[in-house]
Design goal:
mainly beta, 5-stranded mixed β-barrel, two-stranded antiparallel sheet, 45% strand, globular
Amino acid sequence: MWDDLIPPGVPYSEIVGEGEMDIANDTWVPIYDANGTKLNEALDGAYIKMPGYVLPFDISADGVTDFMLVPYVGACVHTPPPPANQLVVVTTKKPWPMEQLWEPVWVTGTMRTQLSSTNLGQTGYALSADVMEVYVW
């Protein structure tokens, strides 16, 4: 689950820093402290299954193969991005046929701890998906 992406002993409340207001764009821009990029190294190489929302990087006629898995609707688009240790870049060989934006899914595959930067935000994890399925409430 998403809490597991934060290293043991680091409370979620300590990963969000102060932040500042972007007056020109009328948005709040978070400033994460060092805890926002701390990763749970026990997950490196682990085979996991986790839920989240698909935020595609590219969509083709077949679907999406590269996307960001985010913990809540609106992450990285309508609100400031979550900290790096709450964002997962996912790649899948079989395209996921997106029916709608912000589709909740389960993703199963091999997790890697890997800080990287995307145009949507800094990410802390990469997941190579073997299986994807719709998350049914």
